[in-house]
Amino acid sequence: MRLREIWNLKFKTIPLGLCLWLAAFLSACGYHVGGTASLMPPGLKVIAVPALKNDTPRYRIEQRMTEAVVHEFIARTKYRVVSSEDSADAVLRGEITHFEAIPAVFDTSPNATNSGTVPTVNTTAARATTMLVSVHMKVSLEERETKRVLYQNDDYLFREPYEISTDPAKFFDEQGPALERMSRDFAARLVSDVLENF
Question: Concatenated DSSP letters for 33-98?
């Protein structure tokens, strides 16, 4: 009888011990949800984001991208964002070194043409429907007083495909909104990378 009680006790404690060991193991793994962890110093309260420097021929792109980065910091963090470095705890500096938008996907549907007496001819015109936008930049976040670098990437790359209209009349109308959308996407990724120190 005594042996049977010991045997039953063993089978009751093994699963409990296994569950406790598994819980301890999983809690030590350090997993976290992406975008929630911040490795920034706890004393940081004010970040200066001066205008990005533009080394590309693309007109005024630095203005839209700077505005998007400022908006993203304000929307996603508790930091106060200023443009002047004098009152900041840290300074985010950026320099756009290369901007490129190249056609990536084409529409090759046939166009029917009819010129009076000549029979209808199907011609194929390849029109871009998706552009691949690439932005290269140098970016750094530095504590103002100590000059300690919190984040630095001298070849930061943002690359995203964007659909565009195949109608030439609408294409030029879309450039402004498309640049706004690209700037927002760029800012969201940059701010995440800076906060998580990837």
Answer: -TTT---S-TT--EEE-PPPEE-SSSTTHHHHHHHHHHHHHHHH-S-EEES-STT-SEEEEEEEEE
The torsion of the CA quartet 137, 141, 144, 150, rounded to 10 degrees, works out to -140
Q: How many CB atoms lie within 10 A of CB 92?
A: 24
End-to-end alpha carbon distance in the chain: 62
SS3 100: strand
State mean pLDDT over 81-92: 92
As given in the structure block, the two tokens for residue 75 are 């929307």
Pick the range with the lowest mean pLDDT from 46-55, 123-132, 146-155.
123-132
Dihedral sign computed on CA atoms, order 179, 182, 184, 190: negative
Question: What CA–CA distance (Å, rounded) separates 120 from 110?
Answer: 12
Cβ contact 178:21 at 8 Å: no
- Compute the residue count for the chain: 198
Tokens (6 digits) for 99: 């901007």
pLDDT score recorded for residue 27: 47
